[in-house]
Amino acid sequence: MKRYFKGLIMVFLLVVFTFSFAQSKVIIKAASPFPKGHIITESMENFKNIVEDLTKGRIVVELQIAQDTEEGVNDKCSKGIVDMQFTGGRALEVFAPQYFFMNAPFVLKDYEHFFRLMKGPIGEKAKQEILEKGNMYTLGYLYRGYRQMTSNKPILGLKDLEGLKLRLPVVPTWVKVWEALGTKPVTVPLTGLYQALKDGTAEASEGDLTQISGYKLYEVQSYLIITNHLVSFGWVHMYKPTFDKLSLADQKLIKDTVEKVCDLATKELIASENDILKLLLENGMKVIYLDAKTMKEIREKAKPAVEELFRTTWPVTTWEEVLAQ
After folding, report:
1. Global confidence as pTM
2. Per-residue pLDDT of the chain in tens (325 residues, 90 and over written 9)
3. What pairs with residue 87 in β-bridges?
4. HEC profile of the chain
5. How far apart are CA 21 and CA 167, in angstroms?
6. How many other β-carbons are positioned within 10 Å of the β-carbon of residue 97?
7. Domain 26-324, CATH 1.10.443.10 — does that match?
8. How many CB atoms lie within 10 A of CB 178?
9. Whole-angstrom distance, CA of residue 33 vs CA of residue 66
């Protein structure tokens, strides 16, 4: 009889141990619309490696790379179909549209300006909007470069923008600004960028150097035009219910790791921008640097559209207040 009860106790302990182990195992699905090799997906891969290493595999991070559009990935994360997204500014546009000036052409001064905004009251309010309306915590953001233009013809000034079929993401505010500059925007999701340029649906594009190199646009575009018209950032968001059910220790681990990989990516990109530019040159792109006078003319032409957007679409602040930060 004693042997019988001893056996039952052993079975019970085994079940408890197995159940406890299963309960402690965490699977996090992380998605990015960007291709492998992009600074944002590299950050996601670093996140996976660090988290799995620190937890000895107790937390498993499953990656979905370039399997969906930026719009699709954002929708999945806000609904909990995936737990995290390493992406562009889609969540800001959808869930905090009044703060989308932080990701709009010709608005911010430089990447340090963006970080100052995010650490201040404007950034905190934007993150709160994303949380309340998108059900996602904003855990981090990383610098991914200034956005430039690519084209199959030289762009030397305003006259060359007139009637230009410019591929843009499906972002209405961007469309308004570029229309004001005389272009004919062609809105195409990121996953269709290369094909649109290849088949002539669009004859030009705009994007940061990591996008231009990551999508091998040098195969379908001849010129790179340095405009620095927008400071581009990657964002990391996590589905609130997933984050909330983690232990406090795991929450800290996730937040600290996101902060670490974003900081590493920002420093890496700043250090490697010249290398990316060199790669584009080696692959046949010709670089055009617009002088200060030309860029001032372009910015002046865009200014009324930007000011109108602050009045109608971004009324939570003014352009003057943003520039003062």
Report:
1. 0.85
2. 555 555 545 545 444 444 444 458 999 999 999 989 899 999 999 999 999 999 999 999 999 999 999 999 999 999 999 999 999 999 999 999 999 999 999 999 999 999 999 999 999 999 999 999 999 999 999 999 999 999 999 999 999 999 999 999 999 999 999 999 999 999 999 889 999 999 999 999 999 998 999 899 999 999 999 999 999 999 999 999 999 999 999 999 999 999 999 999 999 999 999 999 999 999 999 999 999 999 999 999 999 999 999 999 999 999 999 999 9
3. 235
4. CHHHHHHHHHHHHHHHHHHHHHHHCEEEEEEECCCCCCHHHHHHHHHHHHHHHHCCCCEEEEEEECCCCHHHHHHHHHHCCCCEEEECCHHHHHHCHHHHHHHCCCCCCCHHHHHHHHHCHHHHHHHHHHHHHHCEEEEEEEEEEEEEEEECCCCCCHHHHCCCEEEECCCHHHHHHHHHCCCEEEECCHHHHHHHHHCCCCCEEEEEHHHHHHCCHHHCCCEEEEEEEEEEEEEEEEEHHHHHCCCHHHHHHHHHHHHHHHHHHHHHHHHHHHHHHHHHHHCCCEEEECCHHHHHHHHHHHHHHHHHHHHHCCCCCCHHHHHHC
5. 50
6. 16
7. no
8. 23
9. 4
Instruction: Kindly state the tokens that stand for 183.
Output: 């272009």
- Encoded amino acid at 302, one letter: A
Size of the chain, expressed as the number of residues it contains: 325
Side chain identity, residue 224: L
Structure tokens at 275: 């290398």
